[in-house]
Records
---
Amino acid sequence: MFKKTALTALTAALALGLTACGGSDEGSSAASGGGGGGGDDTITLGFAQVGAESGWRTANTASIQEAAKTAGIDLQFSDAQQKQENQISAIRSFIQQRVDVIAFSPVVETGWDAVLLEAKRANIPVILTDRSVDSEDDSLYVTFLGSDFVEEGKKAGEWAVENWGSQPTFIAELQGTTGAAPAIDRQEGFADAIAGTPNLQVVASQTGDFTRSGGREVMEAMLNSHPEINAVYAHNDDMGLGAIEAIEAAGKVPGKDIQIITVDAVKDGMQALADGKINFIVECNPLLGDQLMDLAKKVVAGEEVPSRVVTEETTFTQEQAVQVLPERKY
Ligand code: AHR
């Protein structure tokens, strides 16, 4: 097996801002090379994260870093700052370092085949976490661990049908990052669920990039162009929280004048739900770290793993949020 020199690995790591976290090996770092070059049994996992766009993402990163530490896995972590080209560069660097296994949460669904083929040719297995890729070649990755985003959108839509469907409802949809699996799938699941309910109309739909500031800006513009809006479906809590700021600034009462559904159920979102400013939240669980480390160990050991591992999730009403908030982990 071809191994890059430590100097090459260090240069690549420094250029990409990769950081080593976790691992039982005190001296492990990008400079010490990947597990393939480490000469001991420590597994090196290269993880290319989307960024730090939301409370969900922060909790997901913490879960992965803590789980790596507990599992004794040397984690090479890269933050792509929501840019696909950064994730591709990070994956290429992991290949150069000869890590044992690569995991990543793709910023967008398409455009991964070339770099995943490079990993396959280098015999480095790839695990998709949180988000999947849109590729005809499913031999490019071993497994996909994460939520069913279409199902999440469907749950949001079913609640809308039940709670808003009997009166004219003009919905503002705040989409996640354009081209990202959760944005595409949550839109699809919601649209399918409300399709047979003529009272429910999505009058505006735009991306807020999964960020609080994006949600606020888009909501401000939508309230100006569509004063009839009386409901919001936000693809994540952060955009919903941004929308709350815009709604309040416009002199309206979130949760009453304009009812809100979001996805995620992170602490800030759950607090707003308990406070009556959000009306319903569909959970998306970010605590994938332990399952990811387990899969990584099995994949490196050559054990069979399921090609799809779906995260278990629930939904929350305002009353349920009040009950579970004190115990909420993220
Ligand atoms: O891919 C999961 C989504 O990404 C979360 O719902 C959102 O908050 C995050 O940014």
Note: The radius of gyration is 21 Å.
---
Amino acid sequence: MSRTVTRLRDGWKFTRTDNPAHPNPDFDDSAWTSVRVPHDWAIAGPFDREHDRMTQARKQADVEAGVQEITGRTGGLPHVGVGWYRLRFNVPAEAAGKQFRLEVDGSMSNCTVYCNGTHVGGWPCGYTSFALDLTSVVQLGRENVLAVRLENLPESSRWYPGAGLYRNVRLVVLHPVHVAHWGTYLTTPTLTDKEGTVSLETTIRNAGPETAVTLRTAIHDRNGTMVCMEETTRSLSGVETIRQDFIVPDPQRWDPEAPNLYTAVSTVRVAGETVDRYETPFGFRSLDFDPDKGFFINGRSLKLKGVCMHHDLGPLGAAVNVAALRRQLHMLQDMGCNAIRTSHNPPTPELLDLCDRMGLLVIDEAFDEWALPKMTNGYNLLFQDWAEKDLRAMIKRDRNHPCLILWSIGNEIPEQNSPQGADVAQFLCDICKDEDPTRLTTAGFNQADGAIRNGLAAAVDVPGWNYKANCYVEFHTLFPDKPTYGSETESTYSSRGEYFFPANEEIGPFRVPHHVSSYDNEFPNWGYSPDVEFRAQDECPFSLGAFVWTGFDYLGEPTPFSEAWPSRSSYFGIIDLAGLPKDRYFLYQSTWSQTPVLHLLPHWTWPGREGETTPVHCYTNFSSAELFVNGVSQGRRRKSVKMVTGAYRLVWPGVRYQPGELKVVAYDRDGAVAAETVIRTAGEAAAVELLPDRQAMAADGDGMIFITAQIVDKDGNPCPRADHGLSVEIEGPGTLEGLCNGDPTSLESFKGSRMRAFNGKCVLYLGSVDGRPGDIRVTVSADGLRSGQISLESR
Ligand code: GAL
């Protein structure tokens, strides 16, 4: 019998009260709330400006000095404080002699775990995965009780951290002889078209007396065919590492264009009996970071077209859901994105599994803070005692993933300006090399002068530059032996479907109702528009590429309205919090991908603006296009490298608004019509239209369908400003897991069944029920409108 892995998903009890009696096995938790894990205790709200309210000294030169009150920085959600979870689980008497291990992928935060009343361990950092040995406390043939205490401190995060057991938890039952936790380390030292070599170190733990152990490792290709095999027998006690080497003929490369995965299948035998089986997916690929020529994968030059991503999933909060993660990654990939920076913490392990399978490259980032604080109760409180443990845990867990290209030891750490900066960086880089000498290290620097002066930038293999598009040449000259890239760029912000005039007006901090223009020309004083970064990358062939801040909107950090409640989530995303693309999505898609793009903005429903100047922008990868208002040509525009903006988008600045039809026609090189896009002035809102992203989902309790509810007029034209209150009704085996309209100022709960449309749209996150397949009918109604109704399937 090999190991059994049980996801501890259902049956948890939860409370926000704190009591030292909670771990007692006979404590009565019947009044606690029943929850499933992953669970985020704060995401249902209510939103409140008092939650984790902070003050800070004003820094900007352009506003009066004094104290600044920051309201929505961590999302305005009730994540601060204590939460307890309890779970009863049975262990059969036949499990006598087994080892019991609890695996936690992440728990926010300051986790303490008890089993049957005994303290068994914990982990303070909420983003780190860890395992606890329960063997000595588990009771056979009866009910056992797990109790978990978590506590989020105020002023500990710069964004919404989530709260609770927000990632997966598993119980693993093992034979005394087994592959240890994160017990394989696999590298591919040499790679040619003819053969790839594999070096595998497998750590075996024997919790019993010394015995002869046979480790058999078979390498399987993506079809499951065994391509080579090694067997090693050794007398073994305690914890020992066995090294095996393999030669794989005709290795199929892992590549963003064809993410071929192999699997090393380890089986452990004792006295002829198979006692454990463990799989390590991996890939063959070569990575080159050339200081003069940029990034290469498998010998092919590739610009990193990356985005930074925080970990929350909008209306699901931090609670991990694979379907929601997959949807995010697909949207990014369709945009032409090929890389993710997991700003500023280790991600959930499922993200890396998905990136392995989908062919996205990843920078795993460990820290946003070292010993010097950004936040009063931030990671600085833990750095001294935990940095090494957290960093080793991240690398041990993640180093076999082919998608991973760099280890980032930090983002904008305040040590950039302290004399110890270089020493701390060296300490962290040494840990990276110790755990994984095959990958290079990086960090993101915003204080370039400081990090260069104190040697911090020189301490990492690949210095990353945050918001320095105009300095890449300078850095390249300064560090001729090191690659150059934009670890964090742009920070352009926008609210989906909001446009302000004049179109080139810069945002003032007091704009009401706290929205940012979707002309994509507003950014904080450290940021710039996408066009500037595109230009820098085009002019710097030596640059590896860049990582936009951010792919999706996230909860918290509502810059530029950090002082302006009810703003409570970011405006930086290329895609909004609901998962709806903003205009900017098409600007990236037109620049990064081969997909033909011909996207117009703004919308064309402006009652009261008749005759007024309403600039029209077109995001396109066609080189020229002509714009028409009600059939009247507004002129032809051609992309021009001479202009920064005009090089990446076409602009008609002087168009006068008239209701009717706005049409753009793109021409090919021979002047023939290649494509056209039309938007029409919408009439009165008449109906709700439902657009699901798929027809069916898995009836496993994890499957999801994402349905966009859109308000349209009687002819089906989207009503771009509609804000009707929508009510959702679900019949059949489906659950409404979240509602989100993408409005960063909305204080309606994500977990209710009603929400207003924001600029004509709202997204329903429909979940499945485990073990209950069947048809689901979804109805969305609004006063005065024809309801939208669709039938979907859970199977
Ligand atoms: C950067 C920082 C990010 C985010 C961003 C907003 O300086 O690294 O975490 O705060 O600014 O523009």
Note: The chain has a mean pLDDT of 96.
